[in-house]
Design brief:
It is a single chain. By secondary structure, the protein is mainly α. Among the domains are: 90 residues, no CATH class; 68 residues, no CATH class; 42 residues, no CATH class; 95 residues, no CATH class; 60 residues, no CATH class. It is built from 26 helices and eight strands. Strand 7 and strand 8 form a beta hairpin. Helix 15 crosses helix 23 and helix 16 runs antiparallel to helix 17. The two termini are 33 Å apart.
Length: 575
């Protein structure tokens, strides 16, 4: 029971009714106060307190004030005599409770085995569920030691049932592969033959990929292929709570092979199967993170390099409208003269015109083309070796028809892996819409001597990877076997299509997308208007003219020190 009660809670839960006062009858003094506290405690908690000090002092004071008694009398209440036993019997009859029997204990265990909470590894959660069940059944719970034994028995039985079920679902080849993961003796033997490069030991399968590099990609894919070779059924844990699977996975990850081998077969194989199942999902997610990071890294490095080059030779030309006016005026006045004699002087010199051209090329389509050229060099020299490995290891899917061209493009790249042709064949159906941006189309689609359109494979692969990255980040594209990047439809409740209106109503959201967007826009307008209205009056915030408007926030006044912190410092001797 909580120790701190505010006045409202005390009034709500600890006020004695006329019927309660009738039960107290002719009791006086400490017996009257003690019986009243036992009554309200059982009514609220579904059990009697185990000792006198389990009732908070604030409650004792409040109940005593209703009875017109000093709260100090509670200390005189006999906790082990016949009086308290008589009071408890009276209270049970009054509230309709009865003492739990041995059969009730068996029934509680049987009930726990039907509840998901029994799979929770935290005993306090399961114990709380037992107390709640006893309250519903109007049972006075058994002693805490008896409750603890019942809870542990139910948890043990539940685990045995789950592990036995998982063992029956495991095919023999999968069991053999799981045994190989634990077979460290043969790998460490002096005369042991070297294991295949893809036959990784269990401890290697638990490690994370590390920083982005070709080695980390290849190593991560090797782990994924080793785990897939175990051959676990996809629905192995179909009726097991996900939290329990995660618990088994964490146990297997923390125990060394010798401890795993010491478990009974059902528990051993269940722990290993849980580890392999979730590690497949985690490693698949890690691979997608690496893919997203690599594509982002290629683009960022290219943009940074181009910007550095532009900074070295870029000079912003001021007053371009005036230059244009002078050039136009001189051209109209001397239409037959040489450009060098008329236009250059009117523009301020040949270098000024060169700066104008350079500034234009540094923006818009010319800038994007230059960045793409740098990306192509980086991609071809290093990162392109990773693409076939990624695409072979991952299976991309999409539930949205708009993004299906990206899936087709991925299959196309996989089909032409290992070929040295610069272009795709003319007769090949290469999806471009939704993949190649309009400003880069002329780079990807070239023309041969016969005037036929040819798709440049390297440039096209870069565009596909960029589109794939955006699709993965928005989860419009998902990957089989992944968790964070898995099928988004699996995140919805199983009865979502039938109960869609109910779920929308529970969330307080409209089903119409236009209505949702309009409401969101209105909230943003109101928030911005409130910010614009209140900001000038906020003495702690200033808008500076520096760099087109920096926001300066003054330090806030320190809050007063909490009373409990001061008491703690005093107790431990800090001043």
């Amino acid at each position: 029971m909580k120790r701190v009660w505010d006045p409202d809670d005390l009034i709500e839960h600890w006020t004695l009714t006329p019927e309660d006062l009738g039960l107290l009858g002719t009791k006086t003094g400490h017996n009257r106060l003690g019986c009243a506290l036992l009554l309200k405690y059982l009514h609220l908690e579904g059990r009697f307190p185990q000792h006198k000090h389990e009732v908070p002092p604030a409650i004792v004071t409040y109940v005593a004030s209703q009875l017109g008694l000093p709260p100090e009398l509670y200390l005189q209440y006999d906790w082990h005599g016949r009086s308290i036993e008589y009071h408890r019997a009276e209270i049970r009859d009054y509230l309709g409770f009865r003492i739990a029997t041995v059969q009730d204990g068996h029934d509680l265990v049987a009930w726990l085995l039907t509840q998901e909470v029994v799979y929770d590894r935290r005993i306090d959660h399961v114990t709380a569920a037992v107390y709640a069940r006893c309250r519903v059944l109007r049972l006075e719970p058994p002693t805490p030691d008896r409750i603890d034994r019942l809870v542990r028995s139910a948890m043990h039985t539940a685990e045995e049932r789950v592990c036995a079920t998982i063992l029956t679902r495991l095919p023999s080849p999968a069991i053999a592969e799981l045994d190989r993961l634990l077979d460290t003796d043969s790998l460490n033997a002096p005369d042991a033959t070297p294991a295949p490069t893809d036959d990784l030991p269990l401890h290697a399968l638990k490690t994370d990929p590390g920083r982005i590099s070709l080695e980390s990609v290849l190593g991560t894919i090797a782990k994924l292929q080793r785990l897939r070779r175990v051959g676990l059924p996809p629905d192995l844990f179909r009726d097991v709570p996900p939290k329990l699977v995660t618990t088994y996975r964490n146990r297997a990850a923390a125990e060394p092979p010798r401890e795993l081998r010491a478990h009974p077969a059902a528990i051993r194989y269940t722990l290993l199967a849980a580890l392999c199942t979730l590690r497949i999902q985690e490693i698949t997610d890690n691979l997608i993170d690496l893919l997203i990071g690599i594509v982002h890294k290629i683009g960022v490095k290219a943009e940074h390099k181009v910007e550095q080059e532009l900074v070295e030779d870029f000079k912003r030309v001021m007053g371009k409208p005036t230059i244009l006016f002078h050039v136009a005026e001189a051209s109209l006045a001397h239409p037959d003269e040489r450009v060098r004699d008329i236009i250059y002087p009117a523009a301020g010199g040949e270098q000024t015109l060169r700066d104008v051209v350079r500034e234009h090329k540094a923006s818009g389509r010319a800038y994007r083309t230059r960045v793409h050229t740098v990306m192509r060099r980086s991609y071809c020299s290093h990162y392109r070796r990773m693409v076939p490995v990624f695409l072979q290891a991952l299976s991309f899917r999409s539930n949205n028809a708009v993004h299906r061209p990206i899936i087709r493009a991925v299959h196309l790249i996989k089909a032409y892996t290992g070929r040295r042709a610069r272009y795709y064949p003319v007769e090949e159906d290469v999806p471009l819409d939704g993949i190649v941006r309009a400003g880069l189309r002329e780079i990807v689609v070239e023309h041969d001597k016969a005037g036929r359109e040819r798709v440049n494979r390297v440039n096209y692969e870069i565009c596909v990877l960029q589109a794939l990255r955006e699709g993965l980040r928005s989860r419009e594209i998902w990957v089989e076997g992944a968790a964070r990047f898995g099928n988004p439809d699996h995140d919805l409740p199983a009865d979502y299509e039938v109960q869609r209106d109910t779920y929308y109503a529970a969330l307080g959201q409209p089903r119409d997308a236009a209505t949702f967007i309009a409401g969101l826009q209105q909230e943003m307008r109101e928030a911005l208007e409130a910010l614009n209205r209140e900001l000038p009056r906020n003495r702690h915030v200033q808008i500076l003219t520096k760099a087109n408007g920096w926001i300066k926030v003054s330090p806030l006044d320190p809050l007063p020190e909490p009373v409990n912190l001061a008491r703690l410092k005093s107790t431990i001797g800090l001043h």
